[in-house]
Structure formats: C-alpha cells, structure tokens
Design brief:
The complex is a heterodimer of chains A (243) and B (344). By secondary structure, chain A is α/β, with parallel strands linked by helices. Chain A has 5 helices and 6 strands. In chain A, a hairpin with a 6-residue loop joins strand 2 and strand 3. Classes of the chains: A alpha/beta (243), B mainly alpha (344). At the A-B interface, helix 1, helix 2, helix 3 and helix 4 of A face helix 1, helix 2, helix 10 and helix 12 of B.
Chain lengths: 243, 344
C-alpha cells in the first residue's frame, strides 16, 4: 500500500468514527453508549496520524532519499479491507438489527427474581419493560399483573406461522454481535409491518397459570400506536423519546 | 514526492532513473482512481443491487461493522502501546524485569497480563512487540493469552454477569492463568522459531538511527494499526457470517450431553468472536448449559476466536496462528473441565 493511500485510509477511518460517534448517533446501532468517548478519541487519533503523515511528507518532499526511508515495512494488502468499515460508516451505514435477527433468536431467558416483587405502581396503563412484564407474568406469585392494563414498547417481529407477531427488543451488552432478543407474543390484532416501533396497551393474554413458568408472556392488544424509535433502542428499558 | 519537472533524457542512464521515478506517481494515481471508484460503488451499488437490501445482508453488515467498531479503540490502544514499547522502552528492560529462566518467566508474564485493561484485540500487537524487544516468545504468549481474560475490567464484568456466583469469577481466573502458563511451557518444549518468521523479519525492531523516536513511534503505530486493522475486518467478516447464518435457537439442541455441551460452547466461543468484556453476559444467557460448559466458553473465547486467529496470522504468521490456536483450544478446554470439576 502506497503512503498516500495509507494517509487516505487513516483519514477516512478517523472521519468515519467521528461521523458515527461525535456528529451523529450512528454508533448506537452497533455498540453501547459507553463506548462513545473511546470512539471519539480513536477517531481523533487516526486523523492526527493522517495529518502527521501528510505533514511529514510535505515537509520532506524535497529530499530525494526520503522515499527509501520507511517503506521497509510494506503495509500488506489486507489493510485495504479497512476501507470497507470506513466507507460504510461514512456513506452507507447499515441499519440497526431488527426483525430479521429477532425472528431467528430464541427469547432471552429472564433471570429469576430472588427478592420478591414490589407492589406495582398505580399508573394505568402501567409502563413496563418486556423483561419486567415477562418476569411478572412468570414469577410473581401475587399475580398482580393479571388485572392490570400495561403499556409495552418495542418493534414488530412476525411470528412466521398463522400471521401472529411478537413485540420485541434486541439488547446487547457490548456490541451487536452479542445481541439477545426479548419477545412478548401479541394477540388480537393483525401483524403490523415488521420493524415498526409500537407502544402497545393491553392486558395479559391468559395462557398457562399466571405466576408460574407455564404462563406465556403474551398480551391481548387493546391499542397499538406507532412511536418513534427510542434513543435507547438497544436496552430493554422504558423508552426515552428522541429529542 | 516526485519531481516531474526534472529534466529527463539527458543521457541513457538518467532516462532509466526518470522512468523509475515516474512509476510511483502513476501507481499513486491508479490507486487514487481505485479508491474513488470504490467510493462511487459504495454510493451507487445500493441503488443498483436489490440484494444489498435483503435483511440478511443488512444484518451481516451490521454485525460485521459492530465487531469492527467495538474493537477499533482497543486495537488502537494495543498498537499504540506496541509502538511505544518499540520506540521508547529500552531493549533490556523486559529481560531485566522477567526472571532469567524462561520456565519461570512464563507464569510471571501470565500474571502480568492482569495489567492490560481491555479486550483481546489489544494484546496481540503488544505481544508481538514484546517478542521483537527480546522477550522470550513463551513468556509473551503467556501474556497474550492471559491479558484479555484476567484483567480487572473483564473479571468485574464476569462478576456482574453471574451475580451471587463468585466461583465463576475465580474459576475463570484460575483456568485462564493455567491455560496461559501451560501454553507458554508448551512453546518452550515444542515451539519452533521458524513459525514466527514474519515477526522476526529484520528491519522492524526497536529504535534505528536516522529517525527521531517520535517518528519511529508514529510509523510503527501506523503500520501495526493498518496491518492488524485489515485482519480485524477479515475476522469480523467471518464471525458475522456465522452469527447471521446460524440461528441462535440451534444452540438448544446441544444442552443435553455434558461432554458435547462443553465442546459445543468452546466451538461457539471460537465462532462467535464476542469481545472478552462482553462474553460473560453471553455465557450467562446460555442457560441450560452446565456451568463447566459455560466456563469453557469464557476461557476459550478470549484466547481463540475467528478475529483473533486472523489477527495472529497477520502478526505472527499463518504457520504459527493455526498451530497455536489449535493447541490453545485443547489446553483451554482441558483447563476448564478440570477447574470446573473442582470449583463449580
């Protein structure tokens, strides 16, 4: 790889990282929010490297012996592959994981609640995360959730058979490669288009014994309103609306 | 860089020189053209090729980019450290600090891995530069294997992922250290320097005359980053391919047999290439598998996976990478089974 190309590659990679992490929220599609400072720092370092490389070349361009100075290392051709993520970030960033991935994953097992359940807040409809809803349905012996109207937020994943669908969240702990899916089955309405973000209001769909492992995490939908994709789409938290 | 306006054709010999001098410029132009074409393709292709919009292709690109973006800061940290070791650290520092006998240096280097916070991408270039600085390869490999598994960040993540189960953290620490040490000793016993040929090529060691140390640092840093970065993308592509083509629900078929599940989760760790800071959470989600199988996932993952094999092939050479990865997998599985049997 020639040195001007190396400079270009460093600059593009740095610009790509800054574009994704500093100027836009693109990085949230791929990694956790906590990685933002290291990503910005990396982008800046790469741009500085490119600048230094360009400046040194410029300063020494009158020196005919210089060309033979550093090429001994000969960056291998594999470095060309780095153009792909750099250009991807800058020009054509792939979308966040969605229904395709969720449909092919089994639902993340919900950890057992050891401490017992606090009483549910009085709000109605009661906003719950998909995980909390599942846990209440399958573990809460008081069966408090059975008589409540709840509101869940997630995107639509078609169930495949019989036109049914799930409300889903994809969560990851580090990056999209370790994604896990939380699903709640929806009953009572036609499946909206895949990947639509919805706030769904409804009551537990009786199936199995409430408060035990046989209960299905499912909802009889009373109302489903399209919502904008939350900023924190990759956690299973109550939605933060985009500002 | 080239003097195009230099008078040419004054004599037969300068003509030859002039031709040689013009060539890099043509090459540079050709490369710039290629880059421009690539950029144009990246913009136009999505419109032209509908398959690029297929959800599977999109998911593949997302996972591939996610692995790359996640790893880049750590790779940058690792290559910066490796560049700094090359340029600023006196050659005899490591030989003075480490025990003289290689057999003793191996476990010391393994424990020293605890000081490099971050995930596995950082440790490969650092281990490479340690070897170039005269550290015995066996000790550098022990460091390479233990650093991503036993540093405080990763152990804390493990404790968070397995709440109320401190035995898992202890087992991970012990099994990883044991594997690192055994692999170091194994290298002393069976390893051949010739497998490391790409690393030991002359002209790539330490400070040379004629450059300032800063230039040396910058060039080493840049070279190592571009080099390892290319291999990182290659490994990310392989891991993304597995990640997208094999649905996670296939896993449930293997939970039954104790032995099969250990081997299966070890293989999964290699194929998934999850960063060592995150793998504990993935392991925690693999309920249905025995604790020993999950321990194997945690021990093998930071030491061997697709992107690491690609990175090692780039840094140490292919002859080394496949032998080392295969041996490490076997040793890591054995260490996990023994530790798991005793502690979990």
């Amino acid at each position: 790889m020639r040195r001007p190309v190396q400079t270009l590659l460093l600059a593009l990679t740095g610009a790509g990282l800054l574009h994704a992490a500093l100027f836009t929220d693109l990085y949230l599609r791929y990694v956790k929010a906590g990685l933002r400072p290291p990503l910005i720092a990396s982008g800046a370092v790469l741009l500085l490297l490119a600048l230094a490389q360009a400046a040194v070349r410029h300063r020494l361009s009158g020196d005919p012996g210089h060309e033979h100075g550093h090429d001994h290392t000969g960056t291998p051709r594999v470095a060309w592959l780095l153009f792909l993520p750099a250009l991807s970030l800058l020009l054509y960033a792939p979308p966040a994981l969605g229904a395709y991935t969720a449909a092919r994953a089994s639902s993340k097992p919900v950890a057992a609640q050891k401490k017992g359940f606090a009483p549910l807040p009085a709000a109605s409809p009661l906003p719950l995360t998909l995980t909390d809803f599942t846990r209440r349905v399958q573990q809460d012996r008081s069966r408090a959730v059975g008589s409540r109207t709840v509101r869940l937020t997630g995107f639509v994943t078609p169930a495949g058979e019989d036109g049914g669908w799930y409300l889903t969240r994809i969560i990851f702990t580090c990056c999209a490669a370790d994604s896990q899916t939380v699903k709640v089955r929806m009953y009572g309405t036609e499946a909206p288009p895949a990947d639509t973000w919805l706030a769904v209001t409804g009551t537990w769909h009786p199936h199995g014994t409430l408060g035990t492992g046989t209960a299905q995490a499912a909802l009889d939908v009373r109302e489903a309103t399209p919502v904008a994709q939350p900023v924190n789409a990759y956690t299973d938290d109550l939605p933060l609306t985009p500002s | 860089m080239n003097k195009a306006d230099e008078p040419v054709g004054v004599a037969a010999v300068p003509l030859g020189r002039a031709v040689r001098r013009v060539r890099p410029r043509t090459l540079g132009a050709a490369l710039a053209l290629t880059a421009a074409t690539a950029a144009a393709t990246a913009v136009l292709l999505p419109a032209a090729a509908p398959w690029l919009h297929h959800p599977a292709v999109q998911a593949w690109r997302t996972v591939c980019l996610a692995i790359t973006v996640q790893a880049l800061p750590f790779l940058l940290l690792g290559t910066a450290l490796s560049g700094a070791i090359n340029a600023f650290v006196p050659a005899d520092l490591f030989t003075r600090v480490l025990p003289e006998r290689a057999v003793l240096a191996v476990p010391v280097a393994g424990v020293a891995g605890a000081v490099l916070p971050g995930c596995e991408c950082a440790s490969v270039p650092v281990a490479g530069s340690l070897i170039r600085r005269g550290v015995t390869p066996a000790a550098a490999f022990a460091f390479l294997l233990s650093a991503p598994a036993i540093n405080p960040v990763v152990l804390t993540a493990t404790a968070v992922a397995f709440p109320g189960d401190p035995a898992m953290v202890v087992a991970r620490l012990l099994a990883s250290l044991a594997t690192a040490a055994v692999m170091g000793w194994l290298w002393l016993w069976l390893g051949k320097e010739e497998w490391l040929r790409p690393l030991l090529r002359p002209g790539h060691t330490g400070h040379r005359h004629g450059h300032s140390r800063w230039t040396e640092f910058r060039l080493g840093f840049q070279h190592d980053f571009l080099h390892a970065g290319g291999f990182l993308v290659l490994g990310a592509m392989a891991a993304a391919t597995f990640n997208v083509t094999v649905p996670r629900s296939v896993l449930d078929a293997f939970t039954g047999s104790a032995w099969l599940s250990v081997l299966f989760l070890a293989a999964l760790a290699v194929l998934l290439a999850v960063c060592s800071e995150a793998d504990a959470f993935v392991a925690a989600s693999l309920t249905g598998f025995s604790p020993t199988a999950r321990l194997a996932f945690l021990v093998v993952g930071p030491m061997v996976d697709l992107k690491l094999i690609a990175l090692q092939a780039g840094t140490f050479g292919r002859a080394f990478a496949w032998r080392f990865s295969a041996a490490t997998t076997v040793v890591a599985i054995a260490a996990s089974v023994l530790t798991g049997g005793a502690l979990l």
